[in-house]
Write a structure and sequence with these properties.
heterodimer; A: five-stranded mixed β-sheet; five-stranded antiparallel β-sheet; 2 helices; 18 strands; globular; B: mainly beta; Phage tail protein beta-alpha-beta fold; Maltoporin, Chain A; 22-stranded antiparallel barrel; five-stranded mixed β-sheet; 57 strands
């Protein structure tokens, strides 16, 4: 009886999905594709701005050039400003770094339009206290990161784990009501050979930035989408560009895994 | 000054002034003969007899003028040639042998009459002469007294009231919306939602026609000689095709309110459905203006509104998720239902709290005369219902249950099933009081192996007291509980259990006064205490994370009046004043700005006021009757909605979160203007209705982010707020009689939303925006044994958002989506058939078979979409619309004992 049920279930499912028809739709394009602004600044890495353009799927390379005459300026809440240096077409960098609780204004001028965004740095940092590991077999390891929460809540952060310089894990943490001073985050890693160097980076950011980066992860090419509720993440840029300007505080540590 | 003692007693045909003036020469007949002395033939005891008639017209109001005048109905032949009124009176006096009394100063001196009457009655001649003069007359014996109309007090006939209940003669169930119609003057009323009617008519004999769909009409001759309580009983009609609501009463013909859709409950049994499951929600989707979000779903939107904008009531208790299996089946077991009422616009002031529509469903009360049972066995579920009298037939009880057996096809612990149960009892406490108890309990259970289980559903309870205050007044008091819960549990190490839900306690009272057939007043109040539990998560290490509850008190007072000042005009006005207060729960409340960033966190004690909103909701409806077969209507209404669903899909997702208005979420507001035209055709064999609407919405909710919205502490920060508008036309042509019955419905509409934070601030189509929708529904009696029904539906494809490109961000390739809802799925259409056998009767039982085929021509309607890359050409992205081959047969057997 059990076997018959299994056969029946399998046949029913197979019949159902085999009968499904896929109606492919493609070729949906816009007349004009927006400029993309990716602007980040942190306490460990100074401000960087990348200008690009979105492209239709039919165009292979999604980084579109040329913003030779573009300028970018960052101004902090104390009125200190820095004109960023364009070291490559569409790529800018500077020296200003993030201070906790400070606000920053980014202004970009291009031939196609001017864009502006405000970013606030979080007031506290989710700090790495200790990172330990436990190897389960030749390839599977569990990292245990003890993190210390800043005094204020809520806290939003993104955790990246690099193995030998390659991004291995990437996830988001939000702590809103928890009152404890710290917590331990366990991260299970596969295909880790002995001797690999693991770098854990915890980036504390404001809520709007956190939600934007998380939404970007949802919209990554290759994921499944629901057309009933798909949408582009909300931007903090004014002027018609998409993307985001974020100011964050990061903490990082490295260890060798045996 | 003339003393009354000096009043002359000699007869004269003048009136008051004559009493005061010197005597005039006696008038003569055209032949020169003196007029007969117009001495009133009063009895000796008659007052003022000795004082002449002069005072009679002043002091006497004759209540039998029509009766007396009827004695003067000898046909007269008279000719007037440019005669003044006094001259005309003189001619009449001579011909009819009557005398006139009047004050010459009140007669219009310039009026000249030229006319010829042959064998006309005295009444006709007098009406003609006095037309447009402002004068009237009364008779006293052979004297006709002419006076200004304002001085003539009309006779007020005595009015008496019949009131009571209209019931099924077999089961004793009250019939909701049954018509009581006085056939002579064309006046009447309908029984209210509790089966009560009240009709006030003048004294005398009247013929009352009582009618109700599915029952044999009855005509009663009733003598209105005193007010009394009278219950009518109607016998169910057998063998009638019951696909449409048909009644010949004028009120129902052109009196149906704007936006009120009347489809009988029995239609859901005749029409084809998915898997043969009777479903009133799917039947509602065949009405123009009502649409489901996807193929096979019971959840629906009305006039562009989302499912949470429909107030769904089961015996007055709200249901927050009225579907099973994420929308594929409704929670309503048709075996347990008596009546349903659906309003998609211009709803009366007693309804509030939702913007788009009201679906009110009433359970049966139980057969008060004998024990009965009925049920059905289908492909996916079976149902059973029992009814029995109680307390020596002073009450009754009904119990019904239903369960699917979908889980029987899955091995082990995998599987899905749902079940629901209905219970209702009532007892009459004397002639004026009746007590009801009703309840519903339903659950969906989904299991995936040992790891995952989901469990959700509604539970409701209603305690109701009906009281007849007097023959014209009815009062209802209800205490209602409603509970919706969702639970998900994972057994994995890092899993846990999450519980969420919404609990309501509701007290309401409605008073209705039936002044007369043309005037009804309804007043009432309601108070609802909401408790929202967005989520309480306990992991498998027994650590608890609780999203703070929300408590809210929602209250309203309302009054409405239905008035028919003239037969061709009805005016319904109403006002609803509503209020919602968000109350503290002893936990912090978080405030957010428009970017979602937290701006403040404030601790509120339990019961402390966090924020208060109130709204004034005027309602108005004008109904013009142009004859017996044509009607026009115009309506306006404003509604506030204080409780909303933060859902992100066309599915009834059980984890969707209900949220009250708060400092971060303002109440939704809708203003809707409706106009309608109704026409009966070919002696009520057909009818046509055309309705147009325009609505403006404020404080609409959308998600700011693409992912599914899960319960979280900061859920309110993830929402965007905007406006909406919608307009459209809905046409319905119905065939009401004959072996073929049904309707053809068409709707054209546009619904738009605008949010500053979405779609670059540009307007976009709403989720339930379907430009064209058509429903063709028919049922045909194939001889005596079988009824064939067919349904064809068409609508514009769902609006969806599709990818249009890509960009680099954060070292990833990210999909760029085009305008929100800027693309349309292919149009949706489908044809369904069903065959219903006529009832086969044994000695103690009845049964019938229902065979059906869903999606006869195998239309592949997209159910959902996937977006995938073409790995042969990585730069391309395809949108694959998944359209399963859903041709579904159905067979079920139904019985009744």
């Amino acid at each position: 009886m059990h076997f018959k049920k299994l056969i029946f279930s399998g046949l029913a499912a197979s019949l159902f999905f085999a009968a499904c028809k896929k109606i492919a739709i493609e070729g949906q394009e816009l007349e004009v594709y927006p400029i993309v602004v990716e602007a980040v600044m942190g306490n460990l890495a100074p401000v960087e701005v990348t200008l690009s353009r979105a492209v239709p799927f039919s165009q292979g390379d999604s980084i579109a050039p040329v913003f030779e005459n573009a300028t970018a300026v960052v101004v902090d809440g104390n009125g200190n400003s820095e004109a960023l240096y364009q070291w490559e077409s569409g790529r800018f960098s500077g020296e200003m770094t993030t201070q906790p609780g400070q606000t920053y204004m980014l202004r970009i001028q291009t031939e196609e339009g001017n864009f502006e965004a405000m970013a606030a740095a979080p007031s506290g940092l989710l700090a790495i206290d200790t990172v330990t590991f436990e190897r389960h077999n030749d390839t599977t390891v569990t990292l245990r990161c003890h993190l210390v929460l800043p005094p204020s809540r809520p806290v939003y952060a993104r955790v990246k784990v690099f193995i030998d310089g390659f991004l291995w894990e990437n996830f988001f943490i939000e702590k809103t009501l928890e009152q404890q001073a710290g917590f331990t985050q366990e991260i299970e890693l596969n295909y880790i050979l002995p001797g690999a160097e693991a770098t854990v980076e915890v980036v504390t950011m404001t809520k709007p930035a956190f939600e934007f980066y998380r939404a970007i992860g949802v919209n990554t090419l290759g994921n499944n989408f629901n057309p009933s509720n798909a949408k582009n993440p909300p931007t903090n840029l004014k002027g018609g560009a998409i993307g985001f300007f974020s100011a964050s505080l990061a903490d990082t540590t490295s260890l060798i895994i045996w | 000054m003339i003393s009354i003692l000096q009043l002359k007693t000699t007869p004269c045909w003048c009136g008051i002034s004559d009493l005061l003036a010197p005597p005039r020469p006696q008038p003569l007949t055209p032949k020169g003969e003196p007029l007969r002395e117009a001495t009133a033939n009063f009895p000796v005891w008659f007052p003022f007899r000795g004082q002449g008639l002069g005072l009679g017209p002043l002091f006497l109001f004759l209540f039998f003028s029509n009766l007396l005048l009827a004695q003067q109905e000898t046909p007269l032949t008279l000719r007037f040639e440019n005669n003044s009124l006094p001259e005309a009176f003189q001619k009449i006096s001579a011909a009819a042998g009557v005398e006139f009394s009047y004050d010459p100063s009140v007669l219009p001196k310039e009026k000249k009459v030229t006319a010829t009457f042959e064998r006309a009655s005295l009444r006709q001649i007098l009406d003609f002469l006095l037309k447009d003069t402002g004068l009237g007359y009364v008779t006293l014996g052979n004297r006709i007294i002419v006076k200004p109309r304002s001085e003539l007090e009309p006779e007020r006939p005595a009015l008496f009231t019949f009131s009571g209940f209209i019931r099924d003669s077999l089961s004793g169930e009250e019939l909701i919306g049954a018509n009581v119609w006085e056939t002579g003057e064309g006046r009447g009323c309908s029984s209210n939602e509790y089966g009560f009617y009240s009709l006030t008519l003048p004294q005398g004999d009247h013929f009352l026609k009582i009618s109700y769909l599915g029952y044999q009409d009855k005509i009663f001759k009733v003598s209105f000689d005193r007010s009394r309580r009278f219950d009518f009983h109607l016998k169910p009609a057998s063998g009638e095709l019951a696909l449409v609501v048909v009644t010949d009463s004028l009120q129902a013909q052109t009196g149906r309110n704007l936006g009120e859709a009347s489809i009988p409950l029995a239609a859901s049994g005749l029409l084809p459905t998915v898997l043969g499951e009777k479903d009133i929600l799917k039947t509602l989707q065949l009405i123009p203006g009502v649409s489901s979000g996807a193929d096979g779903l019971s959840s629906f939107g009305v006039r562009g509104g989302s499912p949470d904008q429909t107030l769904v009531l089961l015996d007055e208790a709200p249901l927050y998720n009225p579907t099973h299996l994420a929308g594929f089946f409704s929670v309503f077991n048709t075996e347990a239902l008596k009546e349903m009422r659906f309003l998609k616009g211009a709803f009366p002031a007693q309804y509030g709290g939702r913007l788009s529509s009201v679906l009110e469903v009433f359970m049966k009360e139980g057969n008060a005369n004998r024990f009965t049972t009925s049920g059905g066995i289908g492909l996916t579920s079976s149902r059973l219902q029992l009814e029995a009298p109680l307390f020596d037939k002073k009450g009754s009880v009904m119990a019904a249950g239903r369960r699917t057996y979908l889980d029987w096809f899955f091995k082990g612990k995998d599987g899905f099933h749902f079940f629901d149960g209905n219970l209702k009892g009532n007892v009459r406490l004397g002639e004026k009081d009746r007590l009801f108890v009703a309840g519903y309990f339903g659950r969906d259970v989904l299991r995936a192996g040992d790891d995952l289980s989901l469990n959700w559903g509604n539970a409701t309870g209603t305690l109701r007291w009906n009281r007849l205050l007097d023959e014209k007044s009815f009062m209802n008091t209800s205490l209602i509980f409603s509970d919706y819960r969702f639970r998900v549990k994972t057994e994995k190490t890092n899993g846990g259990e999450n519980n969420s839900g919404i609990l309501n306690a509701h007290l309401k009272q409605t008073y209705r006064r039936y002044f007369n057939p043309r005037s009804t007043l309804t007043v009432g109040w309601s108070a609802i205490l909401h408790r929202f539990k967005p989520g309480e998560y306990r992991n498998n290490f027994d650590e608890l994370l609780r999203i703070p509850d929300r408590n809210a008190l929602e209250a309203a007072v309302f009054a409405s009046h239905e008035w028919q000042p003239v037969p061709w005009l009805e005016i319904q006005t109403g006002i609803r004043i509503s209020n919602m207060t968000l109350l503290g729960t002893g936990e912090p409340f978080f405030f957010y700005d428009e970017t979602g960033a937290q701006t403040d966190s404030v601790f509120f004690k339990k019961g402390e006021r966090i924020v208060n909103y109130e709204g004034m909701e005027p309602r108005a409806l004008l109904k013009f009757h142009a004859g017996r077969t044509t009607g026009f209507q115009l309506g306006y209404g404003r509604s506030y909605q204080y409780v909303q669903l933060a859902g992100n899909s066309v599915l009834n997702n059980p984890i969707d979160v209900w949220l009250p208005a708060s400092p971060n979420i303002r109440p939704q507001i809708a203003d809707q203007l409706d106009a309608g035209f109704f026409q009966q055709l070919f002696e009520n064999r057909w009818d046509l209705s055309v309705e147009a609407f325009y609505k403006i919405l404020q404080n609409q909710i959308e998600h700011r982010f693409p992912e599914v919205l899960l319960p979280s502490v900061d859920i309110e920060s993830k929402l965007a707020f905007g406006t909406g508008r919608g307009y459209g036309v809905e046409v319905m042509l119905r065939k009401n009689k004959g072996r073929l019955q049904g309707w053809l419905g068409y709707a054209w509409a546009k619904h738009r939303r605008q949010f500053d934070q979405l779609n670059d601030g540009r307007e976009f189509p709403a989720r339930f925006d379907f430009t064209h929708s058509i429903s063709a529904v028919g049922a045909y009696e194939l001889g005596k044994k079988w009824t064939f029904a067919a349904v064809w539906t068409y609508r514009t494809g769902n609006p969806v958002t599709v990818p249009v490109g890509k960009y680099q961000f954060d070292n990833q390739e990210v999909v760029l989506f085009g305008p929100i809802n800027g693309y349309r799925f292919p149009a949706y259409h489908r044809l369904d058939f069903s065959f219903t056998s006529q009832v086969q009767r044994g000695k103690y039982w009845e049964s019938n078979w229902v065979l059906g085929l869903y999606n006869v021509y195998a239309r592949r309607n997209p159910v959902f979409a996937q977006i995938e890359q073409d790995f042969d050409r990585p730069e391309r992205v395809k949108i694959n619309l998944i359209a399963p081959l859903l041709v579904i047969p159905a067979i079920s057997w139904e019985f009744k004992f």
